[in-house]
Amino acid sequence: MTRNRIAETAPGIALCAAIALAAMGLQRLEEHWTGRPWLEALVIAILLGTLLRTLWNPGRRWAPGIGFSAKTLLEIAVMLLGASISFQAVLDAGPGLILGIAVVVALALGASYGIGRMLGLPKRMAVLVACGNAICGNSAIAAVAPVIGAKPADVASSIAFTAILGVIVVIALPLLVPLAGLSMTQYGVLAGLTVYAVPQVLAATVPVGLVSTQLGTLVKLVRVLMLGPVVIGLSVLARRQAEGPKPGLAFGRLVPWFIVGFLSLALLRSLGAIPEALLQVVMPVTTFLTIVAMAALGLGVDLKVLGKVGGRVTLAVTLSLLVLVAISLGLIRLLGIP
Questions:
Q1: Contacts from 169-174 at CB under 8 Å and sequence distance 24+?
Q2: Structure pTM?
Q3: Which of 28, 75, 239, 307 is deepest in the core (most CB within 10 A)?
Q4: Are the CB atoms for 19 and 295 separated by under 8 Å?
Q5: How far does CA 166 lie from the centroid of its chain?
Q6: What is d(CA 208, CA 174) in angstroms, rounded to the nearest whole number?
């Protein structure tokens, strides 16, 4: 960026960073009091940003930096996320389970999107809810949002309601072990296919047993890898809808730069070209940039708009999750997982 551009965006970026630091501090307090982060810092950042926006409307001085944080910093964070993903997880899972996970994700995407549209959600918000439900909750919503050009209010509401339901799932899912007569292996697969975030998978499986934890984490990691193909597909679809079908366009024009970077870093990670020491530096930076971006999204939320769609989003997320659980149980029975 030029010096003028830096001076123009600095106040807004600093504001978003301050909200992000406050959110991280509140997560630390939450972990200290409850033993686990029921609401992650990125969700807290959205809530703090929305609260601040309700009490105070940032003027022109803050707008450029807030916009830069919500778009560019989020894109950088998505790109860096690729460094944490290794394709080795796919090879470890085996072809049968991989195909099953892909089918579950595809069916859940279609069902969730259909439910969202049936309930009257805008197309972009329905896509966000579907991706968050089918793949990996907040991370999927954050990754898909810049690709489809989602509005800040859509992103914030999707993440907020998905996060709340995610906490409920962690608490309630273990009840299916006695109710559905699930073995530890079956429950591990179910948790990996339905719980939104990797830390939440651990929270939902550790009380059940080590086998459930190990298998649930593996299935969840493979499910997260489905984010790459989904984002690329949405990117191609969004560009074609915006510009019209243009055969012969180069890959670089069809797929955003940050998705190319994401896939490149994932490949380097899979090949062992990214040392663990470097990863220990990259991932905290990625997390912080994501939280800063969420704070910026919160600062762009109009609570009146959020209130209008809240009930429909809650119902869409809930129904989508129930469908995902049913599909996952069906896969477990179909594959004959013991």
A1: 169/194, 169/195, 169/196, 169/200, 169/204, 169/321, 170/195, 170/200, 170/203, 170/204, 173/204, 174/204, 174/207, 174/208
A2: 0.63
A3: 75
A4: yes
A5: 12
A6: 7
Question: What does the angle CA 100 – CA 254 – CA 259 come to, to the nearest 5 degrees?
Answer: 60
Show me where the domains of the chain are located: 3-335
pLDDT digits (tens), the chain, 338 positions: 677 888 899 999 999 999 999 999 999 998 889 887 677 787 788 789 888 988 888 888 999 999 899 878 878 887 887 787 666 655 665 677 778 888 999 999 999 999 999 988 888 889 998 988 888 777 788 888 888 888 877 887 787 777 667 767 877 888 888 888 888 888 988 998 998 876 677 667 877 887 787 778 778 877 877 887 888 888 878 777 665 544 444 444 445 677 678 778 888 988 888 888 898 999 899 889 988 987 887 887 666 655 655 677 788 888 988 999 999 999 888 878 78
Look up residue 268 and give its two tokens. Answer: 């380097």
DSSP secondary structure of 304-321 = HHHHHHHHHHHHHHHHHH
